[in-house]
């Protein structure tokens, strides 16, 4: 997801909600209780004393570079990237950033490009996230392919100059094309042009926390920012646990996960907390290429629907195994309400 500037904010986020997958059907029956909402405010330290989790690895992927922000303030975007990259370096965490080149002209083009160069200089790869963050449902196969091709005009030569290969593609909204003919056409083009699809096997909906967090930071409300950050980290740790349980249902073991994050101030300010979660969960951040060597990623993806769903759900359909949706938690209601209020402003 992305907080695109100008009039596209509403358009991009409204597409996210029609994910009428099994998690939402279960939600209608099981979610929304006061206990679930209140549990979201439990401190992260509530996990202290729990048995040590099995060892696992996770690739950290950040969408919507060169950064997403509530208001078009270039200095804020620059500071976000500088801090995020500094904390990744501090923890020696490899990462990859997926770029929407359409963002380059949304604020100050040369400074937006400089942020992409920061990522490469810091040792991280860049991937293609399309030019406009559009949907294949709206653009069709050929329009979507054109948007992918347009989204590499800056980053491909940038990567080549750094003696690296542009090889990773991430679908906006995780929408891979529908019906089958559209998906197959897009997949064939990606393969022919040397791209590999970057799947998602952990998605903690960080985008929904990020806009309220920007509002708190930009208005100087430090207490509100801290509250949102703490709720985000607590929710993220529980959601990571759910995905790990889901992987064990499908494969009988932890897989090497690929985690979807976004280039936001929230994640820049939360990297210390995320590092603490990975330590408690016994998870080691690794490069995307290394994570993708896990045999789980050879599982067929036969999903052909319009909804953007992550890969554990796709694989559950292919393997005819049910994920534990009755245990899945939606984003806490107070966060969703605050996000909706800002999005409708």
From TrEMBL:
UniProt key word Cytoplasm: no
PROSITE patterns: NODB
Signal peptide: 1-48
Domain of life: Bacteria
Record key words, sorted: Hydrolase, Metal-binding, Signal
Any single Gene Ontology cellular-component annotation: membrane
GO molecular function: hydrolase activity, acting on carbon-nitrogen (but not peptide) bonds; metal ion binding
Biological process terms in GO annotation: carbohydrate metabolic process
Pfam annotation, one family: Polysacc_deac_1
The keyword Hydrolase is assigned to this record: yes
Free-text function comment from the UniProt entry: Is involved in generating a small heat-stable compound (Nod), an acylated oligomer of N-acetylglucosamine, that stimulates mitosis in various plant protoplasts.
Assigned protein family: Belongs to the polysaccharide deacetylase family.
Name of the protein this chain belongs to: Chitooligosaccharide deacetylase
Source organism per UniProt: Novosphingobium nitrogenifigens DSM 19370
């Amino acid at each position: 997801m992305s907080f695109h500037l100008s009039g596209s904010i509403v358009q991009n986020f409204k597409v996210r909600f029609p994910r009428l997958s099994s998690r939402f059907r279960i939600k209608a029956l099981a979610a929304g209780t006061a206990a679930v909402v209140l549990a979201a405010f439990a401190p992260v330290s509530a996990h202290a004393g729990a048995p040590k989790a099995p060892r696992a690895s996770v690739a950290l992927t950040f969408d919507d570079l060169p950064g997403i922000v509530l208001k078009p303030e270039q200095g804020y975007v620059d500071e976000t990237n500088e801090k995020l990259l500094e904390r990744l370096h501090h923890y020696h965490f490899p990462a990859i950033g997926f770029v929407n080149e359409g963002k380059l002209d949304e604020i100050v083009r040369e400074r937006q490009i400089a942020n992409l160069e920061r990522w490469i200089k810091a040792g991280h790869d860049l991937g293609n996230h399309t030019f406009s963050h559009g949907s294949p449902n709206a653009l069709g196969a050929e329009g979507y392919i054109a948007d992918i091709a347009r989204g590499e005009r800056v980053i491909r030569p940038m990567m080549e100059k750094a003696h690296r290969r542009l090889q990773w593609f991430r679908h906006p909204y995780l929408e891979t094309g529908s019906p089958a003919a559209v998906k197959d056409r897009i997949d064939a083009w990606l393969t022919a042009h040397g791209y590999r699809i970057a799947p998602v096997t952990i998605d903690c909906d960080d985008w929904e926390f990020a806009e309220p967090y920007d509002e708190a930071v930009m208005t100087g409300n430090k207490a509100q920012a801290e509250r949102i950050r703490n709720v985000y980290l607590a929710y993220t740790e529980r959601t990571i646990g759910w995905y790990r349980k889901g992987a064990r249902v499908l494969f009988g073991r932890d897989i090497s996960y690929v985690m979807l994050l976004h280039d936001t101030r929230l994640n820049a300010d939360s990297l210390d907390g995320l590092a603490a979660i990975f330590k408690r969960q016994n998870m080691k951040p690794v490069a995307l290429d290394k994570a993708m060597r896990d045999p789980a990623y050879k599982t067929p993806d036969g999903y052909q629907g319009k909804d953007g769903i992550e890969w554990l759900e796709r694989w559950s359909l292919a393997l005819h195994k049910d994920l534990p949706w009755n245990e899945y938690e939606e984003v806490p209601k107070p966060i969703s309400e605050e996000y909706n209020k800002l999005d409708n402003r």
